[in-house]
């Protein structure tokens, strides 16, 4: 955060001014909230009858929990498969053999350029047409295929940049003690690269969880689809969508927090392993790391 | 080749991609506007504005885009009666859905734009803002004349990523009936299940053609415009 750089510690006059602007901000926010609530109330969306259902066991056992399970199941299967695909493709892109490197690169670039939704629609149509999966599993298979292909190629890029970020000596030392190139990759480079990239990989989980909602479009029974069903059953669609949205925000915030924690831990460890640094070096290193991680955490491609 | 030209004459593939491009460009403009405001709020000295900005980013970034867009249509329009087009117009439903999709896409991607710009602010060295303050510029002028111009140049690569993601994410608009590329592809796959691979190929290549130049352009721009330090 360089926010502290942009302004001085406020003096009495600025403090008064800031307080006024801050108060105005609160007033505007409250006005917007009031307007939204008034609009909701006007359309009868705030009645107890529309919100009570979320307190009943029936809505949870029949809709919300099955929806959550659907969302988490698709996300979990996709993450495991994407890790496998990602490590294979990432190592493939680093391979010394042209015939492995080129196809891997083309696959990664292709699946990063094509929207996840198109892959899901295609996989869904494909499995439906060739009856590859039992009818009740086609939607899940479609969601998982789309998520795996896209996130697999994202993880492949993470693995690749992780290996590139390692000091050059690692590779040379491993070869010098007589390890073969594949063994160097497997025993020395890959474990370190994956550890370094772990926060970003966990961060990608948020994208996977959000993208499962695309399954709604191919009739997969996940949270958003369940929200719509609740809305039809209790005629409280707006509250149901808001409620499920809040569920997503809470879950994803937890995952995001986990990614941040992991990142702080890796950073601490990374610094202590680097040996003692002069004070000004520490500052520079910290700034560089912070800028890099800010870039990584927030400016990776936002999923749908 | 005969098959491909047949598909192109039977289905409005070019029109669908035109819709995708419109959606993308309009949403990109609005997302940039909203995102800049949110980023400025987050780096401002006023605690309340910081909190509002952070709240916006944290909530929107963690909500699925599909939910946002479904809410725009089923929630805003059908349940709450918020219309964003002229009701007496013949193309009311289409225009309304299109604009609601633009609204959803802009609001969603604005949070990523805000984070990209904030990471751009992080690339501006401390001394710059200190110097600006030393010559007596207040916060907003420091931001406008010294920090933001450099921040935008530093944020070009991540902004490019957001634009590419926005291009791809615009396909979600099909969920509320916008006749974009994904809607057309779905239509084709339902009617011509015999040529699934060809259909997917056409649309996949379309997106490669749309996103690849953007990636190359923004990478070269970010190199050319980066402030050399």
TrEMBL record, chain A:
<dbReference type="InterPro" id="IPR035906">
    <property type="entry name" value="MetI-like_sf"/>
</dbReference>
<keyword id="KW-0813">Transport</keyword>
<feature type="transmembrane region" description="Helical">
    <location>
        <begin position="193"/>
        <end position="218"/>
    </location>
</feature>
<keyword id="KW-0812">Transmembrane</keyword>
<dbReference type="InterPro" id="IPR010065">
    <property type="entry name" value="AA_ABC_transptr_permease_3TM"/>
</dbReference>
<feature type="transmembrane region" description="Helical">
    <location>
        <begin position="138"/>
        <end position="159"/>
    </location>
</feature>
<keyword id="KW-0472">Membrane</keyword>
<dbReference type="InterPro" id="IPR000515">
    <property type="entry name" value="MetI-like"/>
</dbReference>
<keyword id="KW-1133">Transmembrane helix</keyword>
<comment type="similarity">
    <text>Belongs to the binding-protein-dependent transport system permease family.</text>
</comment>
<dbReference type="Pfam" id="PF00528">
    <property type="entry name" value="BPD_transp_1"/>
</dbReference>
<dbReference type="InterPro" id="IPR043429">
    <property type="entry name" value="ArtM/GltK/GlnP/TcyL/YhdX-like"/>
</dbReference>
<dbReference type="GO" id="GO:0043190">
    <property type="term" value="C:ATP-binding cassette (ABC) transporter complex"/>
</dbReference>
<dbReference type="GO" id="GO:0022857">
    <property type="term" value="F:transmembrane transporter activity"/>
</dbReference>
<protein>
    <submittedName>
        <fullName>Amino acid ABC transporter permease</fullName>
    </submittedName>
</protein>
<dbReference type="GO" id="GO:0006865">
    <property type="term" value="P:amino acid transport"/>
</dbReference>
<feature type="domain" description="ABC transmembrane type-1">
    <location>
        <begin position="68"/>
        <end position="256"/>
    </location>
</feature>
<feature type="transmembrane region" description="Helical">
    <location>
        <begin position="17"/>
        <end position="37"/>
    </location>
</feature>
<feature type="transmembrane region" description="Helical">
    <location>
        <begin position="74"/>
        <end position="94"/>
    </location>
</feature>
<keyword id="KW-1003">Cell membrane</keyword>
<feature type="transmembrane region" description="Helical">
    <location>
        <begin position="106"/>
        <end position="126"/>
    </location>
</feature>
<feature type="transmembrane region" description="Helical">
    <location>
        <begin position="238"/>
        <end position="259"/>
    </location>
</feature>
UniProtKB/TrEMBL annotation, chain B:
<dbReference type="GO" id="GO:0006865">
    <property type="term" value="P:amino acid transport"/>
</dbReference>
<keyword id="KW-0472">Membrane</keyword>
<protein>
    <submittedName>
        <fullName>Amino acid ABC transporter permease</fullName>
    </submittedName>
</protein>
<feature type="transmembrane region" description="Helical">
    <location>
        <begin position="195"/>
        <end position="219"/>
    </location>
</feature>
<feature type="domain" description="ABC transmembrane type-1">
    <location>
        <begin position="17"/>
        <end position="218"/>
    </location>
</feature>
<keyword id="KW-1133">Transmembrane helix</keyword>
<dbReference type="InterPro" id="IPR043429">
    <property type="entry name" value="ArtM/GltK/GlnP/TcyL/YhdX-like"/>
</dbReference>
<feature type="transmembrane region" description="Helical">
    <location>
        <begin position="64"/>
        <end position="85"/>
    </location>
</feature>
<feature type="transmembrane region" description="Helical">
    <location>
        <begin position="21"/>
        <end position="44"/>
    </location>
</feature>
<dbReference type="InterPro" id="IPR010065">
    <property type="entry name" value="AA_ABC_transptr_permease_3TM"/>
</dbReference>
<dbReference type="GO" id="GO:0043190">
    <property type="term" value="C:ATP-binding cassette (ABC) transporter complex"/>
</dbReference>
<keyword id="KW-0029">Amino-acid transport</keyword>
<dbReference type="InterPro" id="IPR000515">
    <property type="entry name" value="MetI-like"/>
</dbReference>
<dbReference type="InterPro" id="IPR035906">
    <property type="entry name" value="MetI-like_sf"/>
</dbReference>
<keyword id="KW-1003">Cell membrane</keyword>
<dbReference type="Pfam" id="PF00528">
    <property type="entry name" value="BPD_transp_1"/>
</dbReference>
<keyword id="KW-0813">Transport</keyword>
<comment type="similarity">
    <text>Belongs to the binding-protein-dependent transport system permease family. HisMQ subfamily.</text>
</comment>
<dbReference type="GO" id="GO:0022857">
    <property type="term" value="F:transmembrane transporter activity"/>
</dbReference>
<keyword id="KW-0812">Transmembrane</keyword>
């Amino acid at each position: 955060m360089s926010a502290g750089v942009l302004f001085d510690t406020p003096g009495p006059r600025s403090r008064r001014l800031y307080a006024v602007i801050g108060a105005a901000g609160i007033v505007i926010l409250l006005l917007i909230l009031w307007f939204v609530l008034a609009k909701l109330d006007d359309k009868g969306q705030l009645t107890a009858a529309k919100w009570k259902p979320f307190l009943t066991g029936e809505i949870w056992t029949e809709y919300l929990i099955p929806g959550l399970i659907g969302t988490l199941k698709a996300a979990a299967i996709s993450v495991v498969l994407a890790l496998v695909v990602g490590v294979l493709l990432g190592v493939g892109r680093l391979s010394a053999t042209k015939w492995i490197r080129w196809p891997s690169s083309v696959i990664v670039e292709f699946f990063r350029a094509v929207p996840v939704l198109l892959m899901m629609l295609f996989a869904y149509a494909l499995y439906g047409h060739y009856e590859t999966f039992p009818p009740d599993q086609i939607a899940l298979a479609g969601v998982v295929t789309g998520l795996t292909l896209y996130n697999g190629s994202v993880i492949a890029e993470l693995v690749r940049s992780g290996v590139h970020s390692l000091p050059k000596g690692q590779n040379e030392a491993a070869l010098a003690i007589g390890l073969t190139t594949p063994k160097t990759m497997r025993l020395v480079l890959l474990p370190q690269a994956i550890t370094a990239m772990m926060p970003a990989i966990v961060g990608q989980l948020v994208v996977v969880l959000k993208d499962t909602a695309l399954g709604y479009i191919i009739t997969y029974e996940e949270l958003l689809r369940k929200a719509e069903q609740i809305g039809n059953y209790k005629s409280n669609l707006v509250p149901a969508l808001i409620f499920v949205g809040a569920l997503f925000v809470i879950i994803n915030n937890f995952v995001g927090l986990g990614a941040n924690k992991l990142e702080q831990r890796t950073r601490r460890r990374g610094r202590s392993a680097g040996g003692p640094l002069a004070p000004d070096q520490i500052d520079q290193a910290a700034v560089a790391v912070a800028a890099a991680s800010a870039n990584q955490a927030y400016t990776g491609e936002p999923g749908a | 080749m005969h098959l491909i030209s047949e598909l192109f004459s039977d289905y409005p593939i070019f029109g669908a991609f035109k819709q995708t491009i419109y959606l993308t460009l309009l949403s990109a403009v609005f997302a940039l506007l909203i995102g800049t405001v949110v980023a400025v709020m987050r780096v401002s000295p006023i605690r309340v504005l910081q909190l509002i900005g952070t709240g916006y980013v944290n909530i929107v970034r963690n909500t699925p885009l599909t939910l946002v867009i479904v809410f725009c249509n089923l929630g805003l329009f059908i349940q709450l009666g918020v219309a964003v087009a002229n009701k007496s117009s013949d193309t009311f439903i289409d225009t309304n859905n299109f604009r609601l999709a633009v609204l959803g896409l802009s609001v969603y991607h604005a949070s990523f734009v805000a984070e990209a710009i904030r990471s751009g602010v992080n690339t501006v060295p401390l001394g710059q803002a200190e110097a600006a303050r030393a010559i007596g510029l207040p916060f907003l002028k420091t931001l406008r004349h010294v920090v933001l111009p450099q921040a935008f140049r530093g944020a070009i690569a991540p902004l490019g990523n957001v634009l590419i993601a926005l291009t791809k994410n615009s396909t979600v608009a099909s969920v509320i009936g916008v006749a974009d590329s994904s809607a057309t592809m779905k239509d084709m796959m339902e009617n011509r299940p015999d040529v699934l691979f060809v259909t997917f190929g056409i649309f996949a290549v379309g997106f490669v053609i749309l996103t690849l130049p953007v990636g190359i352009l923004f990478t070269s721009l970010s190199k050319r415009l980066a402030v050399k330090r």
